[in-house]
Amino acid sequence: MTQTNDIARDHEALALPAQLRTALQLAELGLPAMPLRAGKKPFGNCRTCKDSACGDRAHMLAAGPCECPAPCHGWAAATTDPHILTSPAWAAAWRQAAAVAYHPGGAALTVVDLDNPDAVLWARQNLPATKTVTTTRGEHWIYLGTMTSHNGVRPGVDIKSAWSYARWLGPGTGRMALLPDAVRAFAVREAPAAAPSPSTVVVPAPPGDAVCRHRTPAYLERGIAMAEQRIKEASEAIHRTVYRTFLVVLSAHGWCGCLTENHIGRLFTAAQAKGESLRHCEIAWTNARTKLGM
User: Fold this and answer.
1) What is the value of pTM for the model shown?
2) What's the pLDDT at 160?
3) Which end of the chain is more exposed for a tag (fewer CB within 10 A), N or C?
4) Could you report how far apart the first and last alpha carbons of the chain are, in Å?
């Protein structure tokens, strides 16, 4: 009976689209997978999510997998859940899929996409050896570690990690190395965003030589109250408003150690009243701190 069941499962697996079989294998390895249409593009959003009508869970400040049952929002749809990958809502996409992609950041990986021979030569001269996958025009160098994704950090070099996807081109060769500082430095030079999965909210610690500009408690209180009001009055672009408000608060009050958990809690409460999740708030706060170099 066991052998019969195994044969039945094998036949069932063979009946699946080839790209879906690949995605299921990636999921078993812990790599969040998703289908790609021709041109290495993700599938468009469903009617419910079209034009961000659902709130756009793949927004730069969003976290976690897309909650739509269809493969919506690009990288945010990538998943390791076989029930989602094989669900009816994904079936049409798999039948049309031209390739399979994975979300490197979701697997704690970073892909350095080297798009031409000159870029490959630069990597060999400047980066530590790691797992390498041959692409149609160059190579993917895969490191263990997560950072924000950036395109064009230098000629022919893109960084694909958090908030991005990379096409699956095989397991590659070599031993994976830890993400080097030379690659992380691109995030500092090229963009302000932070990794999308902070576990705690950090109150900025005052530098040793910091001088407090808040001669009276009223200055800080007025700043927090104004920030709360700005968030409460936002009627659109809530994600962006929350992030920019956090940025303003930190730039004015974050360097001297006056901010407390109570102040942060008030800002988070205002944001959550506008529909933001606690997770979104944590990420926006971390992004703002990183933008300011805190």
Assistant:
1) 0.61
2) 94
3) N
4) 62
